[in-house]
């Protein structure tokens, strides 16, 4: 397939629909559609295949299995947050966006909660459901490109789980700051994906080895693997001043004491089990020279360790929200 014509700046996206490459003018997008549409302007069908060029080089899965895992991750974060969809004290938002929406589950629940709010969920791939609230629109977009929302800012910008997916988080936060209404809120939740144990039980395991080699590969390609630990600094550097931070330790598996810890650990182990092979396959085979069979052996050994009751693995997650200054 050949592309004809050249896009003028960031006003256009290259889009592949069926057999043809075309340029889509993003300024024609309806921010509050009456019906769910694809970015082509036509109703989405399961036969449509639309992709941005960058999606080809994306290193994490973006298929139906990954959407199922992201729904499990949503249940995990809801457990961490005591079944709250967000922490910011928003009351009557009119315009909101969910960055890198994934399966779209958060955006759907938010749109249901605020039917008078125009909600956008963006992602590199159009894998979200088509039956959604009428005030919700999913669009294909790359959040690391220049944003076009300065003239139509948001009351609420939400993002979570961008580890290993974003190369320039400080720039992303600056763009979020510039596209939030005065008094609006920005909320990010993210992980430090480097596991640890307080009793030394992780040391020397195949699970530790998995994370050592896979995270090193992502770092070599310029991705953040510990965004959670840097969020507060990035928010401050972007211009936010009234920053609310909550930090949690989340177990992998049900070894930790306490009902909430066991539930978090169960969800975490379930989503980890779904992610472990797909999360390593692309980066290790494309950039580290591994054969697929080698990745499968690595992940099989790590999966076995993850289920051991004597290996007490923890991950840190940071939940942060801040208002945009009025001035």
From TrEMBL:
Q: Which domain of life is it from?
A: Eukaryota
The entry lists its GO molecular-function terms as: methyltransferase activity
| Protein name as it appears in the record | Methyltransferase domain-containing protein
């Amino acid at each position: 397939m050949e592309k004809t014509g050249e896009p003028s700046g960031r006003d256009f996206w290259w889009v592949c629909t069926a057999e043809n490459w075309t340029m889509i003018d993003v300024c024609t997008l309806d921010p509050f559609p009456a019906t769910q549409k694809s970015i082509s302007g036509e109703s989405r069908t399961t036969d449509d295949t639309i992709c941005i060029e960058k999606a080809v080089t994306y290193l994490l899965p973006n298929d139906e299995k990954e959407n199922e895992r992201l729904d499990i991750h949503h249940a995990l974060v809801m457990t961490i947050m005591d079944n709250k969809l967000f922490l910011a004290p928003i009351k009557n938002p009119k315009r909101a966006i969910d960055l890198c929406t994934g399966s779209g589950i958060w955006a759907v629940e938010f749109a249901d909660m605020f039917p008078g709010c125009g909600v956008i969920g963006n992602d590199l791939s159009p894998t979200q459901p088509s039956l959604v609230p009428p005030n919700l629109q999913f669009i294909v977009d790359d959040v690391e490109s220049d944003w076009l929302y300065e003239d139509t800012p948001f009351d609420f910008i939400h993002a979570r789980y961008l580890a290993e997916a974003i190369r320039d988080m400080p720039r992303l936060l600056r763009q979020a700051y510039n596209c939030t209404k005065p008094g609006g809120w920005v909320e990010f939740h993210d992980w430090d994906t480097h596991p640890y144990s307080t009793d030394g039980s992780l040391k020397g395991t195949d699970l530790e080895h998995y994370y050592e080699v896979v995270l090193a590969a992502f770092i070599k390609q310029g991705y953040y693997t510990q965004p959670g630990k840097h969020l507060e600094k990035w928010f401050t550097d972007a211009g936010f001043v009234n920053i609310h931070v909550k930090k949690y330790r989340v177990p992998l598996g049900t070894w930790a004491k306490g009902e909430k810890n066991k539930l978090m650990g169960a969800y975490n182990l379930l989503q980890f089990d779904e992610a472990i092979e797909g999360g390593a396959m692309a980066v290790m085979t494309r950039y580290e020279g591994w054969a697929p069979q080698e990745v499968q052996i690595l992940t099989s050994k790590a999966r076995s360790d993850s289920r051991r009751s004597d290996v007490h693995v923890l991950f840190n997650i940071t939940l942060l929200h801040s208002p945009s200054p009025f001035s």
